[in-house]
Records
---
Amino acid sequence: MPELPEVETTLRGIRPHLIDQSVKAVVVRQRQLRVPVSRGLKSKLKDQVVRDIERRAKYLLFHFDCGTLAIHLGMSGRLRVISASVPIDKHDHVDLLFNNGAQLRFRDPRRFGLVVWLGKRPLTSRWLAHLGPEPLSDNFNGDYLYSRAANRRGAVKNFIMDGRIVVGVGNIYASEALHHAHIHPARGAGRISRHRYDDLCVAIKRVLARAIDAGGTTLRDYVSADGVPGFFEQQLAVYGREGSPCGLCSTLIRRRVIGQRSSFFCSQCQH
DNA sequence: CCGGCCACCTGCGGGC
DNA sequence: TGCCCGCAGGTGGCCG
C-alpha cells in the first residue's frame, strides 16, 4: 500500500494525537514481521514519552528519551490512532497504548513491515545509514541525479527506485514521474542528459507533492466510507492504465516488467 | 561498486 | 463452487 505520500499522510494524521504522550502498554500479537519484533520492547517503552515523530524515507521514527522506534509499513501496512475498543483484526500485529487513551494500531497482512528499535543514534543504524536524500529536499536536484547516474548501465526506473540514490520513489510514482519527464523507463541511467535529469527531478518532486496534497490516497484499497475510490488514483497518468490512451497523445499505454516490477509508459511520449 | 535476482507473506480477482 | 495462477504499494541480501 504505502508509497511515500501515504507515509507522510500517516505521519500528519497520528502525530497530533501522540506527541508528549507516554506509553502505557505495548501489545504484540504477532512478532514475525520482516524482522522479529524485539521481546524487550514492552519494558523499554513503558512510561516513555513521545518527544517527536518524524519521517525519514518511508520509515516513521518515534523519538523517546531513551532512543528511537522505527515503523515501516512495507507493502500492506497501515498505522492508525483509534479510540479504545475497536475490534481487533487478524492482521493487527502491534498496539501502543498511551496514557491519554490513544491507541496506535499497526496492521499489516503481508508482514513485510517493520517495528524495530534503533537506539540512541538512529541515523547510524543499518536501516537508515545508507539512505540517499529526501526527494522533496533541495539537495535532491538535477545535478545530483546526473552525477550519480554516470556510468550506470541499468534502467533509469531502477535507478530512481534505488534508496541509496533517492528515497521514497516507489513503483507507482517512478512510472508517473518518468511519464511526466518523457523518459522511457528502460533507458540506461547513464545515457540521459543533464537537462533531462532536471526535468525528471522536477517531475519526481511534483508527483510526490501532489499526492501528499491529495491526502496520500494512491491505493486501490484506499476507499472512502461511501465506496468512492481513492482520489489520487484518478489522477495517475500511466500506472495501472495498460491499454488505455495516453492523455498526451492517445497512444495506448503499455506495461512491461523492468527489474521484476510492472512498469507503465507511453512508447510515443517517452524515449 | 554495480546489476540481476531472490526472499519474505497474505489476499484478491480471473479463468477454467 | 472451488482450485490454481498471477499479481500487488518494499527493500535487504546474496551472488557473480
---
Amino acid sequence: MKKPTKTQYEARAEVLKAMAHPSRLLIVDELAKGERCVCELTEMIGADVSTVSKHLSLLKNAGIVMDEKRGTQVFYTLRVPCVVNFFSCVEAVLKERARIYLSAVAG
Amino acid sequence: MKKPTKTQYEARAEVLKAMAHPSRLLIVDELAKGERCVCELTEMIGADVSTVSKHLSLLKNAGIVMDEKRGTQVFYTLRVPCVVNFFSCVEAVLKERARIYLSAVAG
DNA sequence: TTCATTCTTGGCAGTTTAGCCAAATAGCCA
DNA sequence: TGGCTATTTGGCTAAACTGCCAAGAATGAA
C-alpha cells in the first residue's frame, strides 16, 4: 500500500461510516454470534422494522453483511467478520477518553 | 465484556464516526508516521485551515489524537495508535465489495 | 384466491454534518 | 506596542442522516 488516493479514502470512510451508528454496531455484534433474521434484530434494537431494514441495507451496500431469504424471512450474516476486531481498539479509545476526563476533573 | 448497553454502543459509534471521513482518515494515516502540525496536514488535505482544525478537534474530542502547542504551531499525534489497524479490515471489506460488483456484472 | 406475515421502499420532518469566510486568540519578534 | 504567523471559533448554507408512517412486494397457508 503506497499512498492511498482521495477516492480510496472516500471508499474507506464509507465503510467506517456504515458501522458508525449504535444500532448498526449492535447488529454487527449480534451477527458475530451467528445469522439472525430481521425480526430478531428488530426486537433487539427496539425500533420500527423499516428503520432496521434500512440499517441492514446500508450495511449490505457497504459490503459488511450479506442476506439470504428463506421463506418469508431474511437472514443476515457477517460477510467480513474482521470488523468485530474494531471493538477492542474502540474500547481502548474510550478508556483513554475516560482517563482524559478524569485527569481534567482532578485538575 | 458481557452485554454492551445502548449507551456503550453510542459511545463506540461516536469513536467510529470520528474516523468516518476521508480527510480524517488521511490525518490518521499521516499521524501514524509521526507528529504533524496543522499547517502540514492542511496542505496535504487541500482544504481551508479552519476546516482542518475542526476535523482535528473532532478527532481530539473522540480521544483518538492529542495536541501539543510549541510556539505558534500545534502538533498532533495519535493517542491510540491501534486505530491504524482498522485499515486492513476495511480494505478486506472493499475487496469483498469489488467481488460482489464483478459477480453482479458477470451475471 | 384471499389473508396474514415478513421485509423493503418511498416520502416526509427534524437533526446533524461539512466547508467556507470572517473574526478572535495566541505566540514571536522587532 | 505593532505586526506577522498559526490556529481556533462563530456563523451561515447546503447536503446528508435518522426514524417514523404508509404503501408495496414476496411468500406461505387456508
---
Amino acid sequence: MPDNSTDQRSEHKQHGGARTGAGRKKGSGRFGEPTKVMRIPASKVAQVKQWLAQDQAANCAPEVNAQKWTGLLKTQGVSLFQSVAPANEAPVSLPLFSHKVVAGFPSPADDYIENRLDLNEHLIRNQEATFLLVVEGDSMQKAGIKDGDILVVDRSIEPSDGKIVIAALDGELTVKRLSIKSTGTWLVPENDDYPPIPVREEADMVIWGVVTATISRF
Amino acid sequence: MPDNSTDQRSEHKQHGGARTGAGRKKGSGRFGEPTKVMRIPASKVAQVKQWLAQDQAANCAPEVNAQKWTGLLKTQGVSLFQSVAPANEAPVSLPLFSHKVVAGFPSPADDYIENRLDLNEHLIRNQEATFLLVVEGDSMQKAGIKDGDILVVDRSIEPSDGKIVIAALDGELTVKRLSIKSTGTWLVPENDDYPPIPVREEADMVIWGVVTATISRF
DNA sequence: ATTATGAAAAATGTAACAAAAATCAAGTTG
DNA sequence: CAACTTGATTTTTGTTACATTTTTCATAAT
C-alpha cells in the first residue's frame, strides 16, 4: 500500500476489514481432505498424478445405467487408469425367454421373450469404476470363485461387512470376504484350508473394490 | 571436531581427507532415479507407499490362464435368453488385470493391463447361436452354479462327453453334464438329490447347447 | 438488496533443511 | 603389501517451511 499516511482519510478506500468466520473452508481442496507431501520417483510422478485425477473422476462418477442391479453405492478408495470407451448404444441385446420353452428353437419374435439383456449393462453398473481381475488360487472356492475365473470389481461400492472384496495384502491382490465385527476386521477366505486374516491397521491392507460378479468359463 | 588447533599434529587422527570421486553414487537410492516431492491426499498415502514398495520388489509373471477349470455341474429349472443379431460393436472395453496388482497401482509400470476385455465379446463367441439362461434353484450351488446365475450357452458347440449341456426334458430346460460312455449316454446332475438320467434315444431329449460360461452375481 | 472489495483461512507447489545412507580413498594396522 | 578403519563427501529421503494461489465471507460502497 503506497499511501497510508493519514489513517483518517484512508478509511474511504477500505472495503473489507478484520472479521471472523472468513477464510477458505476446510476440505475445499481438490481432494476434500488434508494432504501430505511425499517423495516420488521422477518417472512415476505422472502416473501418480493421473491416478489421483482418475480417482476423483471415479468418485463423482454418474449413475450410468442400472435397472436390476442391487447394491450399495458409495465411493471409496482406488481407481485405475482406464480409457473411457464411449458407450454407443444397441450393442448386444439378448432376449430373455421363459424357462418353459420346449424342444424347438425360440424365435426372438415369439412372446417367449421376457426380457432383453446386455451382458455389459447387466454386469457393469459403473463402468468408470469397474475393472476385471483373473483369479489365481482357490481361497474362495466355497463362494463359487475358482482359479481362472474373471471377477468383476466395482470400486465405487463401499466395502462393508459380508462383501467379497479385493484387498492388497503383502503386495498381492487377494479376494476375500470382508468381515467387520465388533471384535475387529477380518479377511475371511471361503476355503477351510486357509485361515482368516486379521486386519490391524489401514496400512496393513488396502481394499480395492467390491466383487460384484464372477465369470467362470468351461 | 574437538581438536583442530595444530594442523601438523592433527594428522595423526585423520584417516580420511579431501578426495575426489568420493560420495554416494547417483542412482543408489531405493528407486535408482531422482525423486520429486508431491502432495498426496492423506488417505492415499498408504496406497502410494505400498505401490512404491511393491514396485521395487519382484516383477510379476503375468500368467493369465483362464481355462483350467475342472468343475462339476448341476441342473435345475432355467430361464432362457437368446442372443440376437450382432449389432454394431461399440465395445465396452474394460481393463483386465492380472493378479499382481498393488494398492491401486498395477505393478509393472507399463504392462499393467493384461488385456482389455469386452464382456460380450469374451463370453459370446457365436452370437447368433448363443443363449443366456438364468438358473432357477440352488441345487447346483455346490458346483459353482447358483440360483440366479446366468449361463452362457452356445448351440454351435458339439455336445461331447463331459460337457455341460442344456437339455430339454419333459418340457423344461435343465442343466446336466453329458456323459457318453460305452455303457450309454447319461445326463448327470451334480447333485445327490437327483439321479443320473439315461438317454436311450435321440428323441428322448433335445440338447440345446453347451454351457460355455456361468456368471454369478453377489 | 446487490455488488465490489479485500481480509482471513486453507490448499498447494516448491524450496530448504537436517538426518541418514552410501561410497570412496587416504590412512592405519597386521 | 593386503586388509581394515575411518572420516570426508555426495546422494538420498523424510519432513518442515514458505511463498503463492484459491476459496470464502464480512463489510463497505452502490
